[in-house]
Design brief:
about 300 residues; mainly alpha; Cytochrome Bc1 Complex, Chain D, domain 2; about 0% strand; elongated
Length: about 300
């Protein structure tokens, strides 16, 4: 088990208080018949994911790059619902914004209005090619008028077992390691009532109600393919497995519904770090004060003996 204090996790992610209600987004394209067992160091291998309608390359690209912040016709997440966006903006504007939002966010009036509407949450540059930007714009236009599979192979968190939720808690708190070596969420985030030794980090948002904010599908995408700049950099080389993302969603779903008892989590990573730093400083000060005792004492005795001889 790796100490949680040594992990560095990116900040995720939320810019507004979250509702305590469960999301009302539409169900996944196909109801699962089995729930994958979440993976831990001692848990059994996860069950095979249920079959779902295959995604097109464009749908898969949207799920990986856009789905954590946007929907098409299912409501606002971190960013706006993109349904009928082509009726509100020109195609040239959309393609430019999708490819390099930074080129417009600081200068274009429409982009600046969006930035203000969504409380300053900036869409990052996703490294898309011209072809990929055109593909995504075409997809959003098509999905605005006909059904699309933007969720792919998806298992709802509501189907999780108590064991799945327990595994999610262990992964969140760093009590069980991520398979790819990713940092535990508790390094930067907290969930009220999670009963962790240190409560949680304060570097990023409280995730107690993140399930209500992003919805089940949005949270799944945010965990697997985070679009948030710092989190994306960290987890690009340490991605979560599908079973780990499912277990974390199950844990956060329960937290959102109040399944975790409320308690004071003031004993946090930052507080523990401050107390630890103070203890180190006190120890160094004590050691510094004693550093020359073995030299000073003989010199002092010689000086005193010399004075006695002179007298």
């Amino acid at each position: 088990m790796r100490p949680a204090l040594l992990w560095i996790l990116p900040p995720l992610l939320l810019s507004a208080p979250l509702s305590a209600q469960a999301p009302t987004s539409a169900a996944a394209p196909a109801a699962p018949s089995t729930v994958p067992a979440a993976t831990t160091a001692t848990a059994a291998a996860p069950a095979a994911p249920p079959q779902a309608q295959e995604q097109s390359p464009a749908e898969d690209l949207f799920a990986r790059k856009c789905g954590s912040c946007h929907t098409v016709g299912k409501g606002v997440r971190v960013g706006p619902d993109l349904k009928d966006v082509a009726k509100r903006r020109s195609r040239a504007w959309l393609e430019l914004f999708v490819k390099t939002p930074s080129a417009l966010l600081d200068s274009d009036p429409d982009a600046r209005n969006l930035l203000a509407e969504f409380k300053g949450v900036r869409m990052p540059d996703l490294g898309l090619s011209d072809a990929e930007s055109r593909m995504l714009v075409d997809l959003v236009i098509r999905c605005s008028t006909e059904p699309c599979n933007l969720a792919g192979r998806f298992v709802a968190a509501t189907t999780a077992t108590p064991r799945d939720r327990a595994v999610g808690r262990e992964l969140f708190l760093g009590l069980a390691p991520m398979k790819a070596g990713g940092a535990p969420c508790v390094s930067c985030h907290t969930v009220r009532g999670s009963k962790g030794l240190l409560g949680g980090g304060r570097l990023a948002k409280d995730l107690t109600n993140v399930f209500a904010r992003l919805g089940d599908e949005g949270l799944d995408t945010a965990l697997k393919s985070p679009a948030f700049p710092l989190m994306n950099k960290v987890y690009a080389v340490h991605p979560l497995e599908a079973s780990e993302a499912f277990a974390l969603r199950a844990f956060l779903y329960e937290a959102n519904l109040g399944g975790e008892p409320a308690r004071d989590d003031s004993w946090s990573v930052s507080l523990a770090g401050g107390i630890g730093s103070l203890a180190v400083l006190v120890g160094l000060n004590f050691a510094w004060g004693r550093r020359l005792r073995g030299v000073r004492q003989p010199l002092t005795r010689r000086r005193e003996n010399g004075k006695e001889h002179l007298s």
